[in-house]
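Standup notes, protein team

Yesterday: finished cleaning the Pardalotus punctatus set.
Today: WDR64 protein structure.
Blockers: none.

Input for WDR64 protein:
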Amino acid sequence: PILASAHESGCIRLWSIQGNVMKELLPFPDHPSGPLTALCTDIFTKILLAGSKEGYIIRWNIASFLEDSQNRKNKIKEEVCWRAHATEVVDLFTEEEKNVVVTGSIDGSVRLWHAMTGYYFGHFGQARKFDLSDTTRLILPSDVNDFPAIIKGESKHMKRKEVKYPLMLDRDK
């Protein structure tokens, strides 16, 4: 078993049950999410979802890491990031059978998204019925104008380098 904690820095830490940090996750640098406010996993703990103060949802695949966390080849891969709300995400959960993510925000809206791609299905209280079978039609909520970003590259863990002399004037340059 592991524990996950979300932080204001946008970092997620995975902890062993003994209290040791096993891994730190940072969102892909091209898609800043801000302070994290909500976390959830799927029922099989293969997917980790995080919601942010800026309204973003980030999805990581953690299955291979959890199978053998000691093997450095087993990485955690950020798969998709999307803007779900214009304001803070306060709760989210995933429903595996229908392959949807449900998000709630401080704006009072509850929205449905395709779990794999971040495509918008609609919000609770809308006049039309949800069509969960059509993931090809790209629509967005009225207050969001960013399409989901499928992350192709590896999200590198940013290491802090120690600098002995951070500010030096080099007159030759």
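Follow-up from PR in the comments: Residues 55 and 86 are 5 Å apart (CA to CA).
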